[in-house]
Amino acid sequence: MGKALIEKLMRCTEIGKIYLLIRIKKGKSPKQRLEDIFANPIFGKLIELRGLDTLLAQCVVIGGDVTELGLGISAEDRKLVTDNVSIIYHCAATIRFDELLKKAVMLNTRGTKLMLDLAKECKKLDMFGYVSTSYCHLNEKLLLEKPYPPPADPHKVIKAIEWLEDDVVDGITSKILGSCPNTYAYTKALGEALVIEAMKDIPAVVFRPSIVVPTWREPISGWTDNINGPVGLLIGAGKGVIRSMYCDASGYGDYLPVDFGVSAICVCTWNYVGQKDYARNIYHLVSSAEIRVSWEGVAELGKSITHNKVPLNGVAWYPGGTIKKYRWQHNLAAFFYHWIPAVLIDCLLYVLGYKPILCRVHRRIAKGFEVLEYYANNQWDFDNAAILYLRTKMNAEEKVKFKIDAAGVVINEYFENCIWGARRFILNETDDTLPAAKRHMKVMWFVNIVTTILFYGAILYYLGLWIYNRVFASVF
After folding, report:
1. Alpha-carbon distance 22 to 166, whole Å?
2. Per-residue pLDDT tens for 125-140?
3. Which of 238, 323, 388, 429 has the fewest Cβ atoms within 10 angstroms?
């Protein structure tokens, strides 16, 4: 969401300087990383319009790290920020649900506290915008646009985590989390509580986006830079690797195209800062009140698109499989359709001198399913009255430029664009490989038919042999 927000602000607003807090990563300096950011395809249209040098000149790089005390910012850079910045967006977070608790607290909770400390020093601050999540108060089945009590005192949690050793924190993580299913939801709820607490001192706003998914249209259709949410499932199923999933088929997730999310953040900022509507300071960026796609619907759309329109390269098995209502059904299907093929293919790879990979892939998939199952088998709904109100304040041109409604969204077309995006931006599969992928899909369809006949034929043969030996052998 951070990249998409930067692109939107630079393309559609008259914003001045943008100060970007960037850490050193993989030996690259913050300035080098900024150049890498602008090399992302999402900035292609913007670079054509304004030129790369102009964009780089508009950005001020602040070297730092939200996990370090004082944000790792030099005294000179801190003064630069506090003297000039009027709006802060805090998007930095680890979004791994299975992240170690200490790392999640340091980034998602303590990092937020340190950002708030910086905001309190800013002389021209008009707004501190915190990107939370609509899935951090999971005990509430209907989430309203209001504060909720955190699962613990965030200040005490920060102090305890700072003091305790890593192995001690790991050993008591489940006790600390209590009923909270993962470290992500727990630490984001704590971070949000810190922002709400700071509202008495600074102008602050909480954004609660739902499951952020690829762009609808802006600036390009289907763009994403990660495989979180349904995109990962579509890729896994499209490659023929994921054949079974345990969840409530009729349930639904709440999906937010990232371009809708950043447009909503821009509109909410305009309302809070420009219109001085301070009463509205918690916004739900959600979609399920208008568009609902069941888990089964996502699976069927994915199969249809990868079968007939946008197949992926290097498919291991013909895309198929079903959603299972009961865990035992999924475990049985996973044994036959995930683990047995994985072991056989890895043995073949080893014999041929290649590195086995499929068992490792399925261990990661199984671990991901452990996290996903909680969300896929529970249901939440969200009130978004503030966004509905903002739609009434926008004129026709603004509604097009900053789209925050579902008018014109065609679900089949959108998911097709998502798979195109996965091909181009995640898997780096170029469009000219599509004809070969379609030919490969036809071959895999034939292989799937043959292997299915052989598989069930073998089961029937041995079942018949067993019945014969047990029942008829003594008679004849």
Report:
1. 26
2. 999 999 999 998 998 9
3. 388
